[in-house]
Amino acid sequence: MAKKKKPDPQDKLQGVESALSKSEQFIEDNQKILTIITLVIVVIVVGYLGFKRFLIEPTENEAQSQMFVAEQYFERDSFNLALYGDGNYFGFLDIIDEYRITKAANLAHYYSGISLLRLGEFETAIDYLKKFESDDHMLAPLTQGAIGDAYLELEDATEALKYYERAYSMKENAFLNPIYLLKAGQVYESLGDCEKALERYEMIKTNYPESQEGRNIDKYISRVQVYID
After folding, report:
1. For the chain, how many structural domains are there in total?
2. What is the DSSP track for 149-198?
3. Cβ atoms 182, 213 nearer than 8 A
4. How far apart (Å, rounded) are the C-alpha atoms in residues 196 and 202?
5. Is 60 exceeded by the pLDDT of residue 173?
6. Quick check: helix, strand or coil at residue 68?
7. In a domain? residue 180
8. Rounded CA separation 225/229 (Å)
9. What is the pTM of this model?
10. Minimum mean pLDDT among 22-31, 173-182, 193-202: which range?
11. What are phi and psi of 176, to 5 degrees?
């Protein structure tokens, strides 16, 4: 059997040199376009950093400052002033219109939705709440639950149930989950599905016995068991 020829180190060296030569030639042939690409990348990066520093951050700070007063009105349940402002400071709706690209405007959607819900403007409340984006462990489920409340006020139990289910399924939250489990159970009862209502009530009893809902859940369980048995 013929012996395999041992690779010649010189051949390898020549191959590397050839590859390097081709790379150098490519760079030389395309130097102009490569320079343009590099400049474009630099301009984009510098432009973004400048945009963030000189526009986004000052605008964000201004929006936060304007929203402070609206938040004070919200906490005092002065929802019209919170929404529309007092003539000196913006309301949440103004924040949304004037500072669209800011985090403050995003949060203003939440506040606007809750304010409108409290004022009985349920359909508009849903619109604003659905535009709010958050993964916060409190605000995210509160938003879904508030949408459920608005649909329930509109007598759309099926949609309300969908959002209550989302609210307690999003994150482990010993304060909020039993609230929305109870609401979901009550909606299932109203729809005549006592078995699913019982499942939600028993989830409260098992997982959140120390919650306010958990301490009173036995009466709900007894009530639906009558219809199941």
Report:
1. 2
2. HHHHHTT-HHHHHHHHHHHHHHS--TTTHHHHHHHHHHHHHHTT-HHHHH
3. yes
4. 10
5. yes
6. helix
7. yes
8. 6
9. 0.76
10. 22-31
11. -85, -35
